[in-house]
Specification:
Blueprint (H helix, E strand, L loop, with lengths): L1 H12 L3 H18 L2 H17 L3 H18 L2 H18 L2 H18 L2 H17 L3 H18 L2 H14 L1
Helix pairs in contact: 1-2, 2-3, 3-4, 4-5, 5-6, 6-7, 7-8, 8-9
Length: 171
């Protein structure tokens, strides 16, 4: 199943979404046969990414929710946080900013609980984007600065560049 997932991910990176879905489905079938809920949840998440990349947001949300349900059953908080973030991204792409904020915040709460600074910084950035889009530049700046602070602590130069760019976009 890992081999199928790897092949699918390569196809997705190349933009061949039909082939990617074919291999994600094969991986999912094997995980179902094995009763591997974690593997099934990862497959659903990957399929959601393909649908998001294709702009099929309702299907993306459906697959992210299937993935989330399994990770909740397993108590896998790190993966739950990732799913919440992915769901937030889809809502942002659909222009549903209140829903996007709700899911980004759920993701952030778990990441703070787990002390996952790198992903907290990403969430702060995503929340800042929503506030910037909505014209709340003060709130956006607050979140961008929180993200930048963590990226500096981690020595994440690429992430720092993203934060500086976002801060610059406010001015």
């Amino acid at each position: 199943a890992h081999g199928y997932n790897n092949i699918a991910t390569l196809y997705r990176a190349q933009g061949d979404y039909d082939k990617a879905m074919e291999y994600y489905r094969k991986a999912l079938e094997l995980k179902e046969e094995l009763g591997d809920k974690s593997g099934m949840a990862l497959s659903y998440n990957n399929m959601g990414i393909v649908y998001k990349d294709q702009g099929d947001y309702p299907k993306a949300l459906d697959y992210y929710q299937k993935s989330l349900k399994l990770f909740e059953e397993l108590g896998n908080k790190r993966r739950m946080a990732s799913n919440y973030n992915n769901i937030g991204i889809v809502y942002r792409m659909q222009g549903d900013y209140p829903q996007a904020l709700k899911y980004y915040q759920k993701s952030l709460n778990i990441k703070e609980e787990l002390g996952d600074k790198r992903r907290m910084a990403s969430n702060y950035n995503n929340i800042g984007i929503i506030y910037r889009i909505q014209g709340d530049y003060s709130q956006a700046l607050d979140y961008y600065l929180k993200s930048l602070k963590i990226k500096k602590e981690l020595g994440d130069k690429s992430g720092m560049a993203v934060s500086y760019n976002n801060i610059g976009n406010i001015y």
